[in-house]
Amino acid sequence: RRPRRAEPHIAVMVIGTTIGGAPWFVWVVIFFAVIGISFAGALLQQLDEIPPIMRACWRLSLTSFMLTPLAIIDYIKWKDENKVKMRELKTWGIIVASALVLAIHFAGWVASLDLTSLAHSLLFTTSHPLLILIGSAIFVRRPTKLEIIGAIVGLVGAGITLIDIKDDKEVTAEGDALAFLGAAMIVFHIAAGKTLRYWMPTFVYAFPVTFLAAAFLAIFSVMFNEGAAVFGWATSSKVGWFVLLAFVSGIVGHTGFNFALGYVSPIVVSISTTLEPVVGTFLGWILYDSSVPGLWTILGGPLLLVGIFCVILGSERAIQNNNDAEHCITNQVDEELVQQQIAV
User: CA–CA separation, 92 vs 34, rounded Å?
Assistant: First the structure.
């Protein structure tokens, strides 16, 4: 029997073997999942002897290999009537589009790690909830007061962090712009896959998208004359680090969040993923002696994260305050989109 999903709230009391309405081990999984996704940026920044686009290609290539058995299991369990849709041209058009924007996301993000600080790269890459809110406000619905406040606070925080461009030699406008490009591409990635995640299992969707994104990155690497071999990871002295990266970030991190979605609200997972800039910067400092964020980043970064939290909370409340059939469906889709976002 599937455990009942907990309502979104902050758990502060332990009763028996549950915390906040979910089994205690689920929170342990979420803890390690946050560590897993946060580890990626710190490690990728240290592997800078490999060109950035090919670095991203190797990461997704190995992740796609690890997703293969999970996709096969998902496919076997899948209802036969939905498998027919996999052969439709429209389905594969959306998969290819989703893979393309995912490839651009990884190319921009990993390149930003070489051009700006780890903190700035992670902060701007995880700012996509603000962009989703803007798109939603234009095309879907009026934002709630909490969402508006969150957007304003987040944008002010982002503006404050940018002051470090002139004060911190490690921070550059080009690097921050590439990180922001990565955030924008995640928005399109979610939009591209929205129709598929209504009926397609998580890993059946994630595998082809990840594999094709790796293929696109290989093409991009050739276009930018990076001069690295697509399967160079197999003979590279750094192969162990890339395998670790794919496993810790892709399996422990993203698969851990997918597991947690069976027990907690999607908003818990969404907020957990936005901890990546804080945890990732700390891991980079502890493990790899990355630089401490500049003064303006320390002041503006928390504002940006608080703004993102407010946007996520405001969006969840907007869904909960509408009990008609349309918004009941939207609430279910909210979970599906979180699964899609964390699948790779």
Answer: 31
